[in-house]
Amino acid sequence: MISFELAEPRSLKSALKLIDTEDPAVRAFGGCTALMLMMKTGVFQPSCLVSLRKVEKKHAALAREDGGLRIGALATLSALEQSMAVRRTAPVITRTLRTLSNVRVRNVATLGGHLAHADPHMDLPPVLISLGAELTAVCAGGERRLAVQDLFTGYYETALAKSELISAVHVPAQAGWRSAYVKCTTRTADDWPTLGIAVSLKTDGVLIEDARVVVSAATEKPLRMAQAEAVLRGATVNDAVFVSAGEAAAAEAETIGDARGSAAYKRELLRVHAARALQQALSGGGD
């Protein structure tokens, strides 16, 4: 049995003071779904856990913001899945959540924890990157805003300082954009993905004005595929362009092997499913 202190601050300000320490074994948590697994396997042994469940409810709120969304980091994944505001603004998030783990996990896991854990197999990071989302990180000394794509610096690594927490995620207005997320698993649909690929196209259905193509699970962190995006920008919408984008993504991505498949296998998945994701986005995301 691991012995540790449990703190339950009533405000985010108090929580930030508690984690502003040199002790690396102090950790804040929202739903504790990932952290608990790390503790059970002995990967992490805390000296103090700081629960965020009793801080101000506003940090779990969802609201419209400049035609987009502001999502409090303590919002549960179930709350996002059930939100009409999310469904209307970014329906790809709603679709993605349907096969993100299971309902028991989604009922307690929080958006902030989902991002801060930085597991490259997580489903929402590539989706949020493809939507051009940003986040607000706070510490005792103030706050800063950064793009979600800049959060991830390596395998289970982020740009967050130890004294920082994610307080909110900002999804911009998506007018003119069409998005989709394709998740390839070797087992059940809600399993960790072997490949995750999120795409967003700014198009009138004939010409592609802009594109974001993001790969995860097959790489050590979620990555935008710059060469695939370059193939798409300014192109006329057709299957041949989508196939070319898939070829470009497969050539560009530095895939990694794990228990879910070899690097070569994941590269072939990317080659095929990038085109399928783009077709799906154009057709309405699969609804």
Strand content: 25-35%
Mind telling me the CATH class of the largest domain?
Alpha Beta
- Rounded to an integer in angstroms, the radius of gyration calculated over CA atoms is 19 Å
CATH fold description of the largest domain: Uridine Diphospho-n-acetylenolpyruvylglucosamine Reductase, domain 3
Strand order across the biggest sheet? 4-5-10-6-7
> What's the average pLDDT?
95
The shape, in one word, is: globular
Question: What helical percentage do the residues reach?
Answer: 25-40%
Order of secondary-structure elements: EHEHEEEHHHHHHEEEEEEEEEHHH
* Structural class category: alpha+beta
Distinct helical segment count: 11
CATH architecture of the largest domain: 2-Layer Sandwich
Task: Describe this structure in a few short sentences.
This protein is an alpha+beta fold. 33% of the residues lie in helices and 25% in strands.
Please describe what this structure looks like:
The longest helix has 20 residues. The radius of gyration is 19 Å and the shape is globular. Helix content is 33%, strand content 25%. With 287 residues, the chain is of the alpha+beta class. The protein is built from 11 helices and 14 strands. It folds into 3 domains: 46 residues; 113 residues, Uridine Diphospho-n-acetylenolpyruvylglucosamine Reductase, domain 3 (2-Layer Sandwich); 101 residues, 2-Layer Sandwich (Enolase-like, domain 1), CATH 3.30.390.50. Helix 9 runs antiparallel to helix 10. The strands form 4 sheets. A 5-stranded antiparallel β-sheet has the order 4-5-10-6-7.
